[in-house]
Amino acid sequence: MSRSVSIERNTSETKIKMTLDLDGSGKGNIHTGIGFFDHMLNSFAKHGFFDLDVEVEGDLYVDCHHTIEDVGIVLGEAIKQAVGDKKGIRRYGSFILPMDETLVLCGIDLCGRPYYSSNLTFTVDRVGEFDTEMVNEFFYAISYGAAMNLHLKKLDGENNHHIIEAAFKAFAKSLDEATGMDPRITDVLSTKGAL
Ligand SMILES: [Mn+2]
How far is the CA of 127 from the centre of ligand 1 (A)? Predict the structure, then answer.
């Protein structure tokens, strides 16, 4: 059973083509027009063992906002479609990811309800062409698109590049766990019988 999803989304602000395979090998083919964002999405693919193709034509002459937010919306929708009825998956995932002085915790629940909580703050306005305030916009968009609970907590950290990269990698590891199949789970992991 394939858990690969392709989505195309076109607005007056962004044109996005994305393919996500939850059962990939970590191959990223990412072109968003924002170098640091490409670096983050490649890290997400690599460390979650997802295959992720992303092509974006965004209105970067405005700023990076629409491009980053809309990729979050589409990635959330792709996750939601790829997990389907959620039969056999672990549902929960969490990871505490160290990166030198930085330590970021991620916890997720693919419960069908959107919720986003984060304490990530930054001491610079941008890393490369990526506005740091877009980190929380991006993960908020994913949590709503995928209908998941998503918590990100910075436990330690100084360097803004490290903090953002640790968040993307912690999310990747958590999502890999939550979307992973457990042979002991024969139906949906909920006493309600549905997620
Ligand atoms: Mn890096």
Answer: 10
